[in-house]
Amino acid sequence: MNIFKRHLFKGIQLSKCSICAAASIFTTIAILTCSCNSGEKREGYITSEGFAQGSTYRIIYQLPQSADTSSFCKMVEDSIALWFNRIDCSVSGYNSESSLSRYNSGTNSNVDQIFADIFEESYKYYKLSGGLFDPSAAPLFDLWGFGFKNGTEPSQATIDSIKTCIGMDKLVLERSAGGAYVHNPDSLSSNIIQLNFNAIAQGYTVDYMGKGLEQMGIENYLVEVGGEVMCRGVNSRGNNWSIGIDKPVDGNNISGEMIQAVIEVSGKGVVTSGNYRKFYVKDGVKYSHTIDPTTGRPVTHSLLSATVVATTGTEADAYATIFMVMGVEKSKEFLAAHPELDALLIYQNGESLEQFATPGIVIK
Hints:
Elements: E1 16-19, E2 24-26, E3 31-34, E4 45-52, E5 55-62, H1 69-91, H2 99-104, E6 110-111, H3 113-128, H4 138-144, H5 156-163, E7 172-176, E8 179-183, H6 201-215, E9 221-225, E10 228-232, E11 241-246, E12 259-265, E13 268-274, E14 279-282, E15 285-288, E16 291-292, E17 297-298, E18 303-310, H7 313-326, H8 328-337, E19 342-349, E20 352-357
Antiparallel strand pairs: 1-4, 2-3, 3-11, 4-5, 5-9, 6-8, 7-8, 9-10, 10-13, 11-12, 13-18, 14-15, 16-17, 18-19, 19-20
Helix pairs in contact: 1-6, 6-7, 7-8
């Protein structure tokens, strides 16, 4: 969702399962999903919700025909806990025993399947974006710090020095019958290229869980983790899922309180990335939390939020980050060349908010 979501993956709390009765879902980050009021309400929709990955999650699904509500719900709840745990043990920076933590500490370059999959996806978007999406750029974010912890702006010399130690193209993932491992083939370098997958891991999470639900025979579902969505089929009213996009203005800190637009989606991943809730002002200058890995500095353009609708949550997550680095005009150019993607861009134009939507965005 955001270029570096450092609050993620802090553990899992118990969830609860209930018959879906509410008409709307309020997430903690940027997206509101809501059921359309039209149509006759269908039976058998279940809601599971709780806390995980440093945020909230909500999963709505329709019970398969002839499934026993109690036993099936219990099976789904157990699976949800298992899925979150697997991802936590793979790419959590807060879990000292995760594959990511062990790799970053230099203690073990062997990685698990989830890590390997996310690495390959990240490398793909690194190449597609010309380096604008770069999970190895975590040291740049640490350098700037959110809030300039040392009270001074980093020097260009320091930025340039760190830039020599980042870049996904410096790393190689190798798979074998015994597993997979990541290494830096530059034998002259002793530096460990640090990785942070927080800009893509929640998109991967909603895909992972969606696939798990489908394997259990569930056809109609919505998975939302930290505001990132993957959905299939229809909601409890028999319509496409409706997702509200928060208005990206200062002070809008409660998702669902001020909505810019509501879009209809099915069979897609939806992710919003934005700058309007995370920024720092020093000496009258507003610094975005989004860092451009190619310059090593915060972006300065007018794009406030980018909502991407794509085939998967992973893809939507990556492109939402990429667009927030690109800015409005370059994002429009990219979207024109990639009609398979849909996006809603909200940006500042003087004192006004304006929006740009691709033809596939259905705004209610």
